[in-house]
Amino acid sequence: MSLIKNKFSTDLKVILTIFLLILFSSSLTSCNTGNDQETVRIGALFSLTGNWSTLGNASKAALEIGLEDVNKSFRNNNENIVFKGQVADTQLLPDKALGELKEFKDSGISIVLGPMSSSELAFVKDYADENNIFILSQSSTAGSLSVAGDNIFRFAPDDNLEGEAVVALLLNDNIEHIVPIWRNDAGNSGLESSVRTKFKSAGGSVSDGVVYDTNTANFSTVVDMLRHQVMEAVDTYGGDSVGIYLAGFDEVVKIFALAKDMHILSQLKWYGSDGVVFSEALLKNSGGSSEFADYVEYPNPIFGLDPALENRWGPIAERIKKRSGVVPDAFALSVYDTVRVIALSYLNAISPDDTASFIDSFVKEASLYNGITGSTELNNAGDRKRADFDFWGIRIKDGEYVWKKIAYFHYDTHTITVF
Question: From start to end of 231-360, where are the E strands?
Fold first, then answer.
């Protein structure tokens, strides 16, 4: 009798095991057919309250809108993946960017947009590479970060391309000599170096220039040093042939507030960099800086938007402006393209949770994608391969200062169109 009972118990266990395996198999099938949903979190390191917060807040809105549109598209195509964003405010401070990135890592986030500046990106690079974190910056341009085979990618053109655009405008304006002044960080130092090298290769000459620390509060000494170098340059080349190249961020407001009272500095053309385009601080006319920027023309280059694609980027730009209150530039709009390419890369990667596999998929998808900012194809270093540039300047309209597009650099022809 006990043998019969034991045999019955054994048979029952086998039947129950088979039943549980069938049930578990069914649950896996339902997970793949829509009953469960996979959540992919994307981190973002943006400056929301510090320097360059104009771009930071526009980028945050672009990320939110991009995620909404991607998730809607995935739902319509019955894809069981939802993407969610988590934004941290770096205030454009490298140590804060690294701290926030470590928190992302601890919480399981390995896909991160930003940071915005090259100094931040350089500071987090080693940690990202060592911890298999995928980094994609929308606005870092330093050539020193153009490294093949790392985990750092950029949807912005590097400073070599921006340098070409600036030099083309300088030559178009018949400038023979420039006096540079720049902020001592990776991005702005890279831009100054690019402009210096390319301008000299084109036959121009360059003064030693003035570099200022990132924590400079009082610019009196800096501007006075600039004045002395400009005087020497004008004595040698003549005022019509000398230009001032300024690479910085919102602190240009303080520089202009002092320069406007120095006659020789207000009689020359000034040229700027991407870190100032659409700066709200410069529009507020602090100390007459807006008026000065208008008077010295001050064209600032930024990765340009193809007019032929306005029917695509225009509506997205309006949505970003409505949400953030900021008119987005191409850097901010590229965040929208970034979200789309990341989503496609994750969907089509062989092993999306493996950083190497995801990167392989990302490079492939980026080379095929044409978004609102044009082709997102990357060069061997993982930066945007080609780019046109818009030049923006402060101008007065209806009694108020506004940012206005004043010139355009076409990459394929290396020509300048002045509006």
Answer: 242-247, 269-271, 300-303
